[in-house]
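Course assignment 3, question 2. Fill in each field.
Student: A.L.
Task: Predict the tertiary structure for the chain below.
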Amino acid sequence: MKSTKQLHQPIIDQCKNNNAKAQMQLYNLYCKTMFLVAFRYVNDSFIAEDVMQDAFIKAFKNIKSYKNEVAFGAWLKKIVINQSIDQLKKNKLELVSINEEVIANTESEDWKVENDISIDLIIEEINTLKEKYRLVLTMYLLEGYDHQEISEILNITTNTSRTHLLRGKKY
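Answer field:
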């Protein structure tokens, strides 16, 4: 049985040759998932749709740089996340740097959740947070980025990333 990667490779190869039909096929394969990724960041379905469209345009323009080192979906997801963050920055997202002494004793890895609480409820709660907390929590918990990566992507310090994570967790 062929893996998803093997099944999609011919389509990706055709996209590298600017085949519009293949681009539409690839778009149809990934658009729903990438919309949800964008929505987790921008928290607005209309903006998420725009972000997703822009990300696909960027992906198709740069598809020749895709080298099969990671799954295509992971490569595309990174573009969508970066496009979402760029959109938020464009909307003048304010991420305030926090004093380092605040961080010293606050880092906690206790993420225990009651068994009767669903992942959907957790995501719903994350979506109610202020944007700066929601972004860091989403990137850390749902996307698996570490504080160093988050700080580079959002252009904040790692201490600010930790603080936003902990405050978001507290809320």
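Instructor remarks: Residues 93-108 have pLDDT under 50 and may be disordered. Residues 51 and 84 are 6 Å apart (CA to CA).
Grade: pending
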